[in-house]
Write a structure and sequence with these properties.
Length: 491
Amino acid sequence: MISLLAALTVKVSAILLLALLGVFCLRRASASTRHWLLAVGVVSALAMPALHVLPTDAFRLRLHVPFAEQALAGPLGTAVPLQPARSRLDGLLSGAAALASDPAVAWVGMIWLLGAVASTAVLLVGLARLRWLRVSSTRLTDGRWRRLCTDLARSGGLKRSVDLLLGPQPGLVATWGWRRPVVMLPASACGWPPARMRVVLLHELAHVRRGDWVWLMAAEALRCLWWFNPLAWMVRGRLRRESEHAADDLVLAQGVPAATCATHLIELAREVRANRRTWLPAPAMARPSHLKRRLSVMLNSHTNRRPVTRLTRFGSLSTLVSASILCAGLQVGPVSAAGSAEPKGTAVGQGQPTQSESERIGELVARLADLQAELQAVLDELHATLDWPGAAGSVDPIRTGDGISPPRKIQGVAPVYPPEAVAAGTEGVVVVEATISPTGEVTDMEVLRSVPLLDEAAVAAVSEWRYTPALVDGEPVSTRMTVTVTFTPSP
C-alpha cells in the first residue's frame, strides 16, 4: 500500500506541478483561462488512481531513480553509501522511493488514512453548514430583487433556476449548488441601493454560469485525498482566487465601471470583517484575505479579461490528459546506479547486522526530515516562480476614484523657478502622474502635461512631497494619482 501511495503521490504531484507551471506561462492570459487550466489539472489528478490501475503496458515508462546498488537491499539502518542525486528533484524522488520500499513505514498508510478521514469530515461539516444555511434562510420569490435576479440570469444566458436567499449570517455573500444553485445574501441586502445589488447579483450569477462551485468541490476532494501534499493546497487556493477574478471580469464585461465595482466590494468586505467569519466550501464574494489583489486587478485597465476560447480549452485539455496518461504509465521505483531495477527480495546486504526497532524508527524520522527539506526547497522555488513580479496577479498601484480616498499631502516643497524660465517669461501648470507608495513616498513620476523649461523643476519638487497613504480595508496600498505644479512669476 505504501508503494502505491508513494507512486500516486509522485504522479499527482507531477500533474499539479504541470498545471501550476502552465498558470505561470499564461500569466498574461485572462483569469478564466488560468482557472480552466487549473480545473483540468484538478480533474486529471483526481483521475490518476483510476489511470494507475488501467493496463498501460503499451506506453509504460520506467522512472529511473539513481541509487547505489545496495541502497535497497539492506535494512533501513544499514550504513550503505548512496550516490549523489543528479538534481534536487532526483533527490526528492529517490528519497520517496526509498521510503516506499522499506517495511518499517507500514504505519504511514494509517496516518494517511486518518488525515484523509479528518479532512473529509471537515468538508462534510462545511457542506452540512451550507445545508443548514439554505434551510434557515428566507427565500425571495417576489419583489424587485427577485425580478432583478431573473432578468440578469436571463440576459446572461443562464437557463437554470436560481434560488435567491436572505441568510442569517451578516455580510455573507456566497453561491453554491449545481442542479438548483443558491445565491445567498445577508439580511441587510434589503436596504442596499440598486447599483450594489446589481453588481453583487452579476458577480454571483457569473459563478453559477461558470460552474465554479463544482470545480471548487473537485479541488476540495483532491485536498482531502492528498492532504499532506502542499501542491494540492496551492492549486486549491489558486483555483479559488482565479474564479473570483474571472467573475469580476464578467461583471465588468456587463458595462459596470471598475471604480463602482471596487467601491461596492470594499463596502462588503468591511461588513464581512465586522462580523465573525466561518469557513464555507463555497465561493464568497468579499473575502478580505485577497481583497487588495482583486482591487488591483480590477482597476488595472490593461488586464486581459477575454473569456477562454474553445481552442484554449481543447489545447489545455489535450496536454494535461496526455500528461496524465504518460504519468500513469510511469513505473516509480528505485533502480540501481546501472539502471536495472532492483527486485524487492534481492540478497544484497544479507548478513549485515540489523538494528533494533527504535533505531530503525529514528533512522526513518531522519530520512523523513531530509525528504521534507528537499520538498520544501522545491516548493520555495515554485513559489518564487509563481510570484515573479511580472506574473499575473501582482499588485499594481490602485488608481484613485469612487470609494477610494486619495492620499493627503502632509509635506510639500515649493518648486524652484528655473532662471532661464524666468528670463523667458515662461509660466504655466505642469501635470505629473505619480505613484504614492504605502509609506507615503512619491515614486514613478511621469509628466502628462509638459511646459518647456519647467518639467524638471516640477518633477524635482514633487519627488520631495510626502503623503498619507490610501487605505483599502484598513491597510495602506500603493496609489496612482495626478498632481499639478503651478509656476507663476513673481511680480
